[in-house]
From TrEMBL:
Superkingdom in the source lineage: Bacteria
EC number(s) given by UniProt: 1.-.-.-
Gene3D superfamilies found in the cross-reference section: D-Amino Acid Oxidase, subunit A, domain 2, FAD/NAD(P)-binding domain
UniProt xrefs under InterPro entries: FAD-dep_OxRdtase (IPR006076), FAD/NAD-bd_sf (IPR036188)
Transmembrane segments: none
One of the record's GO molecular function terms: oxidoreductase activity
Protein name: NAD(P)/FAD-dependent oxidoreductase
Length: 376
């Protein structure tokens, strides 16, 4: 009789599939349910920068200690991504560094200086470079007037849809089951755990994890795992595959750009570090022209598609890991930083549920913090 715990994960995005891999590798019997197909939600429209940034979306009230903890959470998760690369052959992550630039004397330059100061104090290998040094690091980059530049060598990017599919395949190779087009319909508590209902029928579970991204607020209705969430939109222009033009993540004052492992380039106006709600969907042809000023190799690039992805962002910008005493085997995880944090959050959640311990690193991100704020 198989006594391995049964785990049902709702959502086959980057967090859900990474959780599936970690649980299956630990011997759990895992089922992933998704109402669509793998990586069809926010993951597919992600800019996919694996970042150490210190200025976090809608989290300016964090304070120094809170921001540093979140920064360290990112760096721990990056280490876990590197470990997963050693386990899963061909995982499409490239650690090619990041160049951030601004024109001297501007507000963007002042923000960069403040971020650089934080990074240096918190132990990041980031350092300031001249325009000439930036061109040596990244020959495809032409900063022009944006000569306030710093470089972070240990950041990178991924091809998110390909990576998510590979994480799911690796989970299935360890025994996980994947049920696409199988919408979650609810659950009931039983004497031994939970009965999960979906379009395909019912299944027993010891643990139920909601990793449904934009759908999480609806999915967790009735569980008591609520947290203040804000709806936001992220717009990304995807270019048709090109020969290798640049390797680094390029974050200029007017455009952000990444060339992925498959040669596709994604560009955005200002994808990260901005208030909740990115700029409206850009004119793609105009954004290509802007991008070509700092990356001349994009001059004749062809727009393949534009994605405008709805996301849910916790009200204070931080991840939310929700559990309750009434439903000890049910957990919800929501974050707008899944690209950077999925590997770390997945490990911590797997440890907490399978080993029955409290992972202290998750404490600042538990939903209880919102109730504590109300009481104060």
């Amino acid at each position: 009789m198989n006594s391995a715990p049964q785990v049902v994960i709702i959502g086959a995005g980057i967090i859900g599939t990474t959780l599936a891999y970690d649980f299956a590798k630990r011997g759990a019997r895992v089922t992933v349910l998704d109402k669509n197909e793998v990586a069809k939600g926010a993951t597919s429209g992600s800019f996919a920068w694996i970042t150490n940034q210190t200025k976090f979306r809608n989290a300016d009230s964090l304070g120094e200690a809170g921001a540093q903890h979140y920064f360290n959470l990112h760096r721990l998760s990056h280490l876990r991504w590197r470990y997963l690369q050693s386990e899963i052959d061909g995982l499409p992550i490239r650690w090619s560094g990041c160049l951030q630039s601004a024109e001297p004397g501007t507000e963007e330059a002042r923000e960069l200086a403040a971020e650089l100061d934080r990074r240096l104090r918190w132990g990041s290998p980031t350092y300031r470079v001249t325009a000439a040094e930036a061109r040596e690091i990244e020959p495809g980059f032409e900063p022009g007037a944006e000569t306030d530049i710093f470089y972070t060598p240990d950041e990178g990017m991924m091809s998110p849809v390909q990576l998510t599919s590979m994480m799911l395949d690796a989970a299935v190779a360890h025994g996980a089951q994947y049920s696409a087009h199988d919408a979650y319909q609810g659950f009931v508590k039983t004497a031994g755990g939970y009965e999960i209902k979906s379009r395909s029928g019912s299944r027993a579970a010891d643990f139920l994890i909601f990793a449904g991204g934009i759908a999480n607020p609806e999915l967790v209705e009735g569980t008591g795992l609520k947290a203040p969430l804000i709806h936001s939109t992220g717009s990304v222009v995807h270019l048709a595959p090109l020969p290798r033009i640049f390797d680094s993540v390029i974050l200029g004052a007017h455009v952000h750009a990444i060339q992925r492992v498959d040669g596709r380039v994604v560009i955005a106006k200002h994808f990260s570090g901005s208030p909740v709600g990115d700029p409206s969907t850009p004119d793609p042809e105009e954004l290509v022209r802007v991008a070509a000023r700092v990356l001349p190799g994009l001059k004749d690039a062809v727009v393949e598609k534009v994605t405008e992805t709805r996301r849910v962002i916790p009200a204070d910008g931080l991840p939310v890991v929700s559990r309750s005493e009434e439903l000890p085997g049910v957990l919800s995880v929501t974050t707008n930083a899944g690209i950077s944090l999925a590997a770390g959050l997945s490990q911590f959640i797997t440890t907490e549920l399978l080993d029955g311990v409290t992972v202290n690193l998750l404490d600042p991100y538990r939903s209880q913090r919102f109730a504590d704020q109300v009481r104060r």
